[in-house]
Every structure is written in structure tokens, then in C-alpha cells.
Design goal:
Elements: H1 5-20, E1 26-28, H2 30-43, H3 46-56, H4 60-76, E2 80-89, H5 96-100, E3 107-110, H6 114-128, E4 146-157, E5 163-166, H7 172-175, E6 180-186, E7 192-197, E8 200-207, E9 213-220, H8 226-237, E10 243-245, E11 252-255, E12 258-265, E13 272-278, E14 280-287, E15 321-329, E16 333-342, E17 354-362, E18 367-373, E19 379-385
Parallel strand pairs: 2-3, 13-17
Antiparallel strand pairs: 1-19, 2-4, 4-16, 5-6, 6-13, 7-8, 7-10, 8-9, 9-18, 11-12, 12-17, 14-15, 15-16, 18-19
Helix pairs in contact: 1-8, 2-3, 2-4
Length: 400
């Protein structure tokens, strides 16, 4: 099952807008939030419905079918697990049409016992994320009538693994302590390229996974902000900015962190691409209500009245909306999970008669990443790397 282009475009649009308001090192998953907003929009009315539709990038009447198809498509992708869960008080009567739009096994019950309910929600979280996240980001209270949550987990192994090295960089915040670098070489030059965007040039490196789940690393010019770089990455996926691929790049320093050179060698050699980046492991939490306008929740979180008559005749409002996420990029592969709930040389001087093309790509200062499904170009998680993992030989505990 494939993701509709309109749905992928809508989810990626939310990714770009979220990136535009993000600060510092972080990771996030618009693909984890989008289906929940879609189901809320289906049951909403008035201003709440209009705001949710604007955040979704699709009409509210179209959103539920799109969300259901999106979850089914993601669940069918190798290396990806997606699930939606709903828990309600026994006394909350749901609208038949709205409930029918949910997955058949999604509905659970809130008993009213906060300890038992918390254990049940956390057990679902652990099961649906493979233990990568152990707690659902929701606070239960006496006023909680319903919990709506999504879980998204992806795992992939690189088609060509990296070698672990100690990072060498002139970027001082990373150079002050040994960092775990990753390096690999290949003869496939079109994995890297440069795009000219309104905010500046962006170098894109595609790291391909074995199950069509890939990670695109994005390095912008130094004045560019994270939102500009990640937004450019989404626009590149949509074809709005052209990328000049490695084989067509001229010689010289042609993009951020990118150098193309003419290399003399003793015998005919294929061109090569040498990549250096960093290993990272990120955890982040997001209070979505702090960005209520971005997610179309401004009216919906007004608890003075109900906004979701399609969900229930009982008046309902959004009490909390949060996401917990982790992302790990290493020598062998990448994994990420998001839980969203409502209540990212040579030596010597031999006979050098032959010439080949060599490209060096160094992601040795803060950069962005988009983890996506290769065929649909649906972005699953995104983030900005500011704190790479330390070198394993370095003892950080000895620091004052």
C-alpha cells in the first residue's frame, strides 16, 4: 500500500513548519502527530475544525480517510511500525461514525485507577515502540475522559556501513572533547549533491537503508538557521529545489562541507566519495500546546466549552498534547521512535599519469537530518544534531 502524494505532501509540510519554529538540538516526528490531528478534525466543529484543517493541509472531511490510509501504509513498510490507540472512560459514549474510523483493535478503557491506567498506557508504549520509549507522555487526572495516542518506530541498517573513527573538526564546540565520528568511502557519487536555496546553499547526503528507509543529512551555509536547512530538505524532496549531483559538480569547494578535487593516481581508478559525519543519540520531548497555532489547537484547548461533537455528545477539549522521541544514528544503521499523545592518502610520489574525481563531504558541525521512506518521500522523523556522541576512549567522568 502506498501513501497518497497529497498526504505525503501534507505531512512533510507540517514537518517543514515545525522545523521553522524549532531551536537547538532536537528531533521530532510530524508523521506521529498528523494522524491524531486528522481524527480530531473529523470530530470537531466550528473554529476548532477550521484550525485543525489548516494545520493538516487537507480539508477536515478528507483527513480521516487519509490518516487511516497513512497508518496502514506505514504499518506495511518494512522496518516501520505504526499504531494508533484510544482509551476512554466507560461512561464516555463515542459517536458511531467517528469510532468506526479508528483501527479495529485501537479502543481501550480507562478504569479511573490512575496507577492501573498508567501501567496500561506505558505497557502499550513499550510494546508499540519495541522498548525504545517506556512512558506515554500524558498526565492522567480526574478530568481525563479520553487519551488518543500514536506510536511510530523505524529501524534500518545501512546498505554500506560506516567505520567508527575519532572526529577531526575545526568546529570548536565539538573539537573541545573527542567525538565519535563515522567514515566511509564509495564509488557512488550521486549520493551527495548541492542545492541552491533562497537561504543559501545546502549539501544533501543520502544514507540508504536496506529496507527503503533512508536518512538524508543536510548541511547548510553557516549563517543558515535549522528551520531553513530542514525546510530546504523538505523542498528538495518535493522537487522545488534542484540538486546538482556529485558527478556533475565542478572542482573546488562547491558547497557546505563539500570539496571536489582532481586526484592523480598510479593506475586507472574509479571516482570516489569520502564521507565523514558523527554518531548521535537524541531524546526530546515536545509540549505541542506551546505551539498550538502550528498544530491547529488554539480553539481546541479552550476548556470552557466542547469542540468535538462528532467524537462524543459529551463536551470535550484538549487538555494536553505531547510527544516523546528518540533517534539514534550509528555505524551500522538508524533507529527512531516517537510516541505522541493527547490529555527527531596516499603515500609516495609514484608515476601519477592517471586522474580521477574525488569528493569529500564533512558533516563536522551542526546539521539536520530527515529520516524518510525512499519511494513515497514521506518524512518520518527529522532533527538537528548539535551534540554528537563522545568517543568511547574518552572518559567524561574525569572532567571537573
Amino acid at each position: 500500500m502506498r501513501v497518497a502524494k497529497t498526504t505525503a505532501r501534507a505531512v512533510n509540510g507540517l514537518t517543514a513548519r515545525w522545523a521553522g519554529v524549532s531551536e537547538g538540538g532536537t528531533a521530532f516526528s510530524a508523521a506521529g502527530v498528523w494522524p491524531l490531528l486528522a481524527h480530531l478534525a473529523e470530530g470537531a466543529e466550528g473554529a476548532a475544525r477550521a484550525e485543525l484543517a489548516e494545520a493538516l493541509g487537507l480539508p477536515a472531511w478528507q483527513a480521516t480517510d487519509a490518516a487511516r490510509e497513512l497508518l496502514a501504509a506505514m504499518g506495511a513498510m518494512r522496518g516501520l511500525d505504526a499504531a494508533l490507540g484510544l482509551w476512554t472512560k466507560r461512561t464516555l459514549e463515542l459517536g458511531h461514525d467517528w469510532e468506526a474510523g479508528l483501527p479495529a483493535d485501537a479502543h481501550g478503557i480507562l478504569t479511573g485507577d490512575p496507577v492501573a491506567d498508567r501501567q496500561a498506557l506505558d505497557a502499550w508504549t513499550v510494546k508499540r515502540t519495541g522498548g525504545l520509549i517506556d512512558r506515554m507522555p500524558v498526565t492522567l487526572s480526574e478530568d481525563t475522559q479520553m487519551v488518543l495516542a500514536s506510536a511510530l518506530t523505524m529501524r534500518t541498517q545501512w546498505l554500506r556501513p560506516f567505520h567508527e573513527v575519532e572526529l577531526e573538526t575545526a568546529y570548536e564546540p565539538w573539537a573541545t572533547r573527542p567525538r565519535l565520528g563515522l567514515r566511509r568511502s564509495s564509488a557512488v557519487l550521486d549520493r551527495v549533491g548541492v542545492a541552491d536555496t533562497p537561504g543559501g546553499h545546502v549539501t544533501e547526503l543520502k544514507v540508504l537503508g536496506s529496507n527503503a528507509l533512508d536518512v538524508h543529512l543536510l548541511l547548510g551555509e553557516e549563517p543558515m538557521k535549522p528551520g531553513q536547512v530542514l525546510g530546504a530538505g523538505v523542498d528538495i524532496l518535493a522537487g522545488r529545489y534542484a540538486v546538482v549531483p556529485g558527478p556533475r559538480l565542478p572542482y573546488g569547494y562547491v558547497g557546505p562541507g563539500l570539496r571536489v578535487e582532481k586526484v592523480r593516481c598510479t593506475r586507472p581508478e574509479p571516482p570516489w566519495l569520502d564521507v565523514t559525519t558523527v554518531a548521535y543519540h537524541m531524546n526530546a520531548s515536545h509540549d505541542l500546546l506551546r505551539l498550538h497555532r502550528l498544530f491547529g489547537l488554539t480553539t481546541a484547548c479552550d476548556a470552557s466549552r466542547g469542540h468535538f461533537p462528532g467524537i462524543s455528545g459529551f463536551p470535550l477539549a484538549i487538555g494536553s498534547a505531547e510527544q516523546n522521541i528518540m533517534a539514534r544514528f550509528g555505524a551500522l544503521g538508524f533507529e527512531a521512535a516517537a510516541l505522541t499523545a493527547f490529555d527527531v592518502v596516499a603515500g609516495g610520489l609514484s608515476d601519477l599519469r592517471y586522474v580521477t574525481k574525488g569528493i569529500t563531504a564533512d558533516f563536522d558541525r551542526p546539521f539536520g537530518f530527515l529520516a524518510l521512506h525512499r519511494h513515497t518521500r514521506l518524512v518520518l522523523t527529522a532533527g538537528w544534531v548539535t551534540d554528537p556522541l563522545p568517543s568511547p576512549e574518552y572518559d567524561w567522568e574525569d572532567e571537573p
